[in-house]
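Worked example 2:
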Amino acid sequence: MVPGHGGAVAATDRAGGRARRPRQHPRLPDQPLGVRRRRHPRRPLRPAGQRGFHPPAGPPAEFWTVQLFLDELDNLLRHLGIADNYALFGHSWGGLLVAKHAATAPAGLKGLIIADAPASYPLWLAAMAELRAALPAGVDDTLRRHEAAGTTDSDEYHAATKVFYDRHLCRLDPWPRDYQASFYELYNDPTVYLAMNGPSEFHVIGSLKDWGVTDCLADIAVPTLVLSGRHDEATPATVRPFLDLIPDARWELFDDSSHVPHLEEPERFRRTVGDYLKTVAQV
């Protein structure tokens, strides 16, 4: 469903009329949402990730567009039969995607959660430059040397990216098994990630590099919960436009998290999202 860092997951409430929640997940495959196994029993989560969506013949890079994934989100809502009453959760790139969807004022959308997402990729890249500059001596030099040489598939580059990822992507040690599995899947098929993002979280040279949603955030008309971690690669500067431009938005900062608070602070994450969904259900 979405490039790289995730898939789409739908949560439905068949027992009542409360808002049901498909989730858009960005850039790596969908295992990082390991918390889905512990969701509320009345909202079963149904993964519909990018693995089920790959066209058979290996399409060119230009096939993978934002509009493609917006269309697929609409298809998912129709397929699940929840387009008349739902909430959306978008993580990382998925946060931009669900914001773009919400800005079209779909009639059935009741609420929006934007997690660990920048409002634009230019803002993201500016934040990446600051975070890279604060890495231990020599790490960013190694990264930039391989980026300039086009050798980002080298072991040395991957080892240097891990330094950044341990600080700003997931601070758990060791990483949860499901989260590690997402990187194995990315290694096995990096097609969409490379086409739309690039070789790493902080070296965005794909089709998303100039994209953002700041121009349409004022059109979002549903209550919006914005989530991020204190050590997140989605820094406060990248998140701020959501709060400044969406008319009804509030921010929850996870002090002990980076980019995956659903793994780093799972109890607080579930409580925060659950409380928000209760308020949406009352609308």
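Confidence is low (pLDDT under 50) at residues 1-17, 34-56. The beta strands are 8-11, 21-24, 45-47, 86-91, 109-115, 224-229, 249-254.
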